[in-house]
Write a structure and sequence with these properties.
The complex is a heterodimer of chains A (112) and B (115).
Chain A lengths: L2 E3 L4 E5 L4 E3 L2 E3 L6 E6 L5 E7 L5 E3 L5 E5 L4 E6 L8 E8 L5 E3 L3 E6 L1
Parallel strand pairs in A: 2-12
Antiparallel strand pairs in A: 1-4, 3-9, 5-6, 5-10, 7-8, 8-9, 10-11, 10-12
Chain B lengths: L4 E3 L2 E4 L5 E6 L6 E8 L3 E9 L2 E5 L6 E5 L5 E5 L8 E8 L10 E2 L3 E5 L1
Parallel strand pairs in B: 2-11
Antiparallel strand pairs in B: 1-3, 3-8, 4-5, 4-9, 5-6, 7-8, 9-10, 9-11
The chains are: A mainly beta (112), B mainly beta (115).
């Protein structure tokens, strides 16, 4: 069965600083990987997805993620964080039945 | 706005009761997925329907059931409710075709509180 680990429960960065959120996955075949963001009281919004090809994926809101098969990782990055990026971020892997298995999430706090 | 709608937004009920959560997928989407988000279990997949047929089941309790109707909306029925069923229930929809082009879009969720 697939699994996702997000090692950082909570990350705090200053506005304008760079950001990297870690994600490690376990899946037997070529993974379909996703990053979603959840703002308080909101649903999940897709930031980006990886399924094949270029290992560096560009998403919305200036986010990107890099797939590294050798490290089973799919880390999310942003060069300069904005206060509006404060939210909870979830990494997910899609299973063979199209179900998403999510990590436990990383809460991002942005300091002014 | 993802285009997926869920009603009601909030639901407060008592233990032992039964509730129905409703989801309308994005226009053109044939697949509907249900997920539960709770503090202790995180985000968990419950069930997947494609064009009216059940396609996959996850960690869905026997007290829970779902349907997808001919107009493609879906309902999640929760019965004999327990305190531990309090959670945020999300519906997601996707076109339901090839994996390379398919993406799940999530609704705003229904927050269920069982007292």
């Amino acid at each position: 069965a697939q699994s996702v680990t997000q090692p950082d429960i909570h990350i705090t960065v200053s506005e304008g600083a760079s950001l990297e959120l870690r994600c490690n996955y376990s899946y037997g075949a070529t993974p379909y990987l996703f990053w979603y963001v959840q703002s308080p009281g909101q649903g999940l919004q897709l930031l980006l997805k990886y399924f094949s090809g270029d290992t560096l994926v560009q998403g919305i809101k200036g986010f990107e993620a890099e797939f590294k098969r050798s490290q089973s990782s799919f880390n999310l990055r942003k060069p300069s964080v904005h206060w509006s990026d404060a939210a909870e971020y979830f990494c997910a892997v899609e299973g063979s039945a199209r179900q998403l298995t999510f990590g436990s999430g990383t809460q991002l706090t942005v300091l002014p | 706005d993802s285009g997926v709608t869920q009603t009601p937004k909030h639901l407060i009920t008592a233990t032992g009761q039964r509730v129905t959560l409703r989801c309308s997928p994005r226009s053109g989407d044939l697949s509907v997925y249900w997920y539960q988000q709770s503090l202790d279990q995180g985000l968990q997949f419950l069930i997947h329907y494609y064009n009216g047929e059940e396609r996959a089941k996850g960690n869905i309790l026997e007290r829970f059931s779902a349907q997808q109707f001919p107009d493609l909306h879906s309902e999640l029925n929760l019965s004999s409710l327990e305190l531990g069923d309090s959670a945020l229930y999300f519906c997601a929809s996707s076109v339901g075709r090839g994996r390379d082009t398919d993406t799940q879009y999530f609704g705003p969720g229904t927050r269920l509180t069982v007292l």
